[in-house]
Write a structure and sequence with these properties.
This protein is α/β, with parallel strands linked by helices. The protein has three domains: 7-27 and 237-365, Nitrogenase molybdenum iron protein domain (Rossmann fold, 3-Layer(aba) Sandwich); 30-233, Rossmann fold; 397-428, no CATH class. Helices cover 47% and strands 16% of the residues. The chain has helices at 15-26, 30-59, 70-77, 82-106, 139-151, 171-180, 190-199, 216-225, 250-261, 276-290, 296-305, 314-324, 336-340, 357-362, 398-414, 418-425, and strands spanning 7-9, 108-112, 115-123, 126-130, 156-160, 184-186, 209-211, 239-244, 268-273, 307-310, 328-332, 348-351, 388-396. The strands form three sheets. It has a six-stranded parallel β-sheet with strand order 1-10-9-8-11-12, sandwiched between helices. It has a four-stranded parallel β-sheet with strand order 6-5-4-7, with helices on both faces. The longest helix is centred in the N-terminal third of the chain and has 30 residues, at 30-59. It starts with 6 loop residues before the first strand and ends in a 5-residue tail after the last helix.
Length: 430
């Protein structure tokens, strides 16, 4: 077993240089780009035949029909534990409360000096949702993608997920798809499914936009097809940075890191502190847990590529976190709210011992599809905003338009566009 969360020296080092160094420990996107490009091109040229061949190669599954038929979905769902169905509905309801608050605020109107400005929400026509599989069945990701799409009013919502070696999609994923009102489910995953949703095949009609988390191949494929089809953002593999001080519950911090690490060896995990003793406590606790947990090959692999950083002080720790711009940031320091005031770049900030990452992944009401690989510097996590567009309308009055004429004239003339002004002025000349 490799060293768990090995210590790295962050004191005095340039944050950007430090981030480049520690991210390279986890994954190298450029190493797979050529492979992903070849997969995408195979699907564009070969359609369904290529999808079946690639599914055989990567998932070791022989599939006949690419689409999961309604009868198969219903049959599979009958095998799902009723408690899981209740949990899926509970989580979707929590998500609906959060996203519904945002959706309701997007439609509004206001009156301003003789003009009425209105905005109305219009959903996209179709969206494709990638749902990871293989190492685990991410039914919750169906809620966070397809569920939010349907809440937003998207007419056609498609789900693609890798099959098991028997060619089946996880019954839990199919159950979530039914609960969310998904229109189509396909038993394909990885880069090949992204290509299918982007460009279409005989069985898969292309979509307007692609969203969802995924492993390295799926994430790189999303970036490649984004030249032709809009995507949400680079979302995966997952990331968790825990920051703590002398008051931190080392056991809680360790368990949260272990919990996130079980996603796979590509998971980005780190503990950052300005207290050397706490760094040692957390590392020791993580090392102890990693030896005996389930899925320990993934846990140990991810934590071996992670790191522990002891900074000079809180300010240096905050600068380092802002440079990393992690997907998830847990603040387990005494003054969690105060420390959070220094954080500008994080996909989701979790404050205190009772807001763990795993809770946000499932049933708090926040969405767990969040930018990774530093993209949290540029945008926030998935929401209804990703599935709608805003239609603006303006209604004016004669007095309102006349009142803006002087400013309009100055702006139009300064830009060398006099006929912009003349077109408005003409309404007041006979």
């Amino acid at each position: 077993m490799s060293e768990i969360l090995p210590p790295v020296d962050a004191d005095g080092e340039d944050p950007q240089a430090f981030v480049a160094k520690v991210r390279s420990r986890v994954r190298d996107q450029t190493a797979v780009e050529a492979d992903v490009a070849r997969i995408v091109e195979r699907v564009r040229k070969g359609g369904d035949k290529a999808l079946k061949e690639l599914t055989s190669e990567f998932d070791r599954a022989k599939i006949r029909g690419i689409r999961v038929e309604e009868s198969e979905i219903r049959s599979a769902v009958e095998t799902v534990d009723p408690k899981l169905l209740d949990a899926l509905r509970y989580s979707l309801n929590r998500i609906g409360k959060t996203q519904g608050q945002l959706l309701r605020r997007l439609s509004y109107s206001y009156v301003s000096d003789g003009f009425v400005v209105r905005t109305e929400v219009r959903p996209l026509e179709s969206v494709g949702c990638y749902i990871p599989g293989g190492r685990a069945a991410y039914a919750s990701s169906v809620l966070m993608t397809a569920g939010v799409a349907k809440m937003s009013g998207v007419g056609r919502v498609v789900v693609c997920s890798p099959p098991t070696s028997e060619g089946k999609v996880s019954p839990a994923i199919l159950a979530a798809a039914i609960i969310c009102g998904v229109d189509e489910v396909y038993r394909v995953g990885g880069a090949q499914s992204i290509a299918a949703m982007a460009y279409g095949t005989e069985s898969v009609k292309k979509v307007q936009k692609i969203v969802g988390p995924g492993g390295l191949y799926a994430s790189v494929a999303k970036r490649l097809v984004s030249r032709d089809v809009p995507i949400d953002f680079f979302a995966g593999p997952t990331e968790l940075v825990v920051v703590g001080d002398e008051s931190t519950n080392a056991k809680a911090a360790a368990w949260d890191l272990v919990g996130q690490a079980e996603h796979g060896e590509e998971t980005f995990c780190a503990f950052i502190t300005w207290d050397k003793k706490m760094a040692e406590k957390v590392r020791a606790e993580v090392g102890r847990l990693a030896r005996g947990v389930e899925r320990r090959e993934f846990v140990q692999g991810a934590l071996g590529r992670g790191f522990t950083a002891v900074c000079k002080d809180e300010r240096e720790a905050a600068d380092l976190i802002n440079a990393i711009a992690p997907e998830h940031l847990e603040i387990l320091a005494r003054d969690a709210r105060g420390f959070a005031q220094n954080i500008d770049n994080a996909g989701l900030v979790l404050l205190g011992e009772y807001a763990p990452c795993a809770a946000s992944d499932y049933c708090v009401g926040t969405d767990h599809v969040i930018p990774t690989d530093g993209y949290a510097k540029l945008r926030s996590g998935l929401s209804v905003l990703d599935f709608v567009r805003l239609n603006w309308t303006v209604e004016g009055t004669k007095s309102g338009l006349k009142a803006v004429l002087p400013s309009l004239e100055s702006l139009a003339m300064a830009e060398g566009l006099p006929n912009h002004f003349r077109s408005v002025e003409s309404r007041f000349k006979r």
